[in-house]
Amino acid sequence: MDKLLINGGNRLCGRIDISGAKNAALAILPATILTDDVCRIENIPDISDVSVMIKILAALGADVKYINKNTVEICAKNVRSFNVPYEMTKHCRSSYYFIGALLGRFSRAAVAMPGGCNFGGVRPIDQHIKGFELLGASVSIEENAIVNAVSDGLIGSPIYLDTVSVGATINIMLAAAKAKGLTVIENAAKEPHIVDLANFLNTMGADIRGAGTDVIKIRGVEKLKGCTYSIIPDQIEAGTYMVAVAATGGDVLINNVIPKHLESITAKLVECGVEVEEYDDSVLIKSDRRPNKCNIKTMPHPGFPTDMQPQMAVLLSVAKGTSIINEGIWDSRFRYVEQLVRMGASIKVDGKIAVIEGVEKLKGAPVKADDLRAGAAMIIAGLIATGTTEIENVVYIDRGYENVVEKLRAVGADIKRVKVTEQDSVSNVS
Ligand code: EPU
Q1: Domain boundary among 185, 220, 255
Q2: 3, 34, 113, 376: which is deepest, by most CB within 10 A?
Q3: Ligand 1 contact via 345 beta carbon (within 6 Å)
Q4: Residue 287 β-bridge partners
Q5: CB 120 near ligand 1, within 6 Å
Q6: Tens of pLDDT along the chain (430 residues)?
Q7: Residue 316 lies in a domain
Q8: Which residues of 391-429 are buried (b: 16+ CB within 10 A; e: fewer)?
Q9: Ligand 1 and 235: CB distance under 6 A
């Protein structure tokens, strides 16, 4: 029930350290089930989606030991169950990676259909199922939406994905790492977290080549071993702060990033007139004037990420001129627009297209986070608006941003988290 309160108008200056990548961590955690040895995972983000995945591992019987809040050791030797019920999956969509991981370990998985961010449309898993079936599993979806997958031992196979899917690529990699023979995923997703999962599995002894291209070859191995691995920095967390600084004006070093992963975001910010200086593992963002308009089409990596679309819409809502955003991944990812319009933005949505006429200023208002990235967008809107913005549904933001309030306060934002009591009175907690 927490809320965020933001008094807008402050320039941001200083340095923000980026945490480990959510979407890499969510793929790597279930992969630890594929070995009996200890896996030590470093740079793991302290976010609620990760906590959900850790809880599932523990419930399945894995021994989980936090060394500190960003380092965890997992030993899945005592995992005996292949069942993940709805109470565990309902809070986190990536819980469906346990289908691939459990299939890889036991040739059997029964996992309830997950919850997760709802973009207003269906989020199909037909390509995941196609992959499991081609590997020799028989898959059924039972009455209470449990995906039941069983095989006599998975056998490698060519798998052509009909649509570029991050989740299907990851799930198939998890299932195929120990399958017999060669699996070739064609039309695979190329996101940085796919490469990170492949690197993690290869460090465990897997034989995976081509991750980061659209053809991934997985030669199954008999056994995987434990390892120590550090997760890559979060591309979208970095991009969110880059856009925040572009929008508020200021001068911030976004630290602990892989600048190559940020290229599509950097290119659009430069088009908007923002200065971006790249260093080995940081980018410096400088902005001191109203942004220029620009057009964006979201696409699979290396295209502009859909997970940065709502944040960019906020920047463009105060740009000079009219911008167009074309959402190329999700059917319905403009629900947050209603909130921005209440803050004074001028945005018209028609299907997967949003037309944004830049206004001079947004004004603070009570708004809500409709999903994780919509929540990030509301924070940026609050940072640039005049007056106070109150953001409800902070629970969505907690899913993917570690210490967002602390990180923003450290660079000069006036933002705090407040607890809402049952009587709806507000008391300060940080
Ligand atoms: N799709 C299908 N069939 C499938 C799978 C996907 O038609 O079997 C379609 C989807 O409906 C969508 C497109 O393919 O239109 C892409 O979906 P994808 O499978 O790539 O998405 P995902 O794996 O469910 C991940 C991220 C999302 C991010 C998308 C796209 C994780 C845990 N989630 O989702 O991240 O938006 O890729 O890049 O990695 C977020 O972090 O806020 C987030 C939502």
Answers
A1: 220
A2: 376
A3: no
A4: 250
A5: no
A6: 799 999 999 999 999 999 999 999 999 999 999 999 999 999 999 999 999 999 999 999 999 999 999 999 999 999 999 999 888 888 888 999 999 999 999 999 999 987 655 555 567 899 999 999 999 999 998 876 778 888 899 999 999 999 999 999 999 999 999 999 999 999 999 999 999 999 999 999 999 999 999 999 999 999 999 999 999 999 999 999 999 999 999 999 999 999 999 999 999 999 999 999 999 999 999 999 999 999 999 999 999 999 999 999 999 999 999 999 999 999 889 999 999 999 999 999 999 999 999 999 999 999 999 999 999 999 999 999 999 999 999 999 999 999 999 999 999 999 999 998 755 544 444 3
A7: yes
A8: bbbbebbbbbbbbbbebbeebebebebbeeeeeeeeeee
A9: no
Distance, in Å, from the CA atom of 330 to the CA atom of 344, rounded to the nearest integer, reads 25
Residue nearest (by alpha carbon) to ligand 1 atom 6? 165
Burial class (CB in 10 A: 0-12, 13-18, 19+), 122: exposed
* Residue span of the structural domain in which 171 resides: 22-220
Report whether residue 329 contacts ligand 1, using a CB cutoff of 6 Å.
yes
The preferred substitution site among 96, 123, 312 for testing ligand 1, maximizing ligand atoms within 8 Å of CB, is 123
Q: Are residues 64 and 145 in the same domain?
A: yes
One domain for residues 14 and 26: no
Domain count, the chain: 2
Instruction: Give yes or no: 39 in active site.
Output: no
Pair (202, 240) in one structural domain: no
Domain-located, residue 228: no
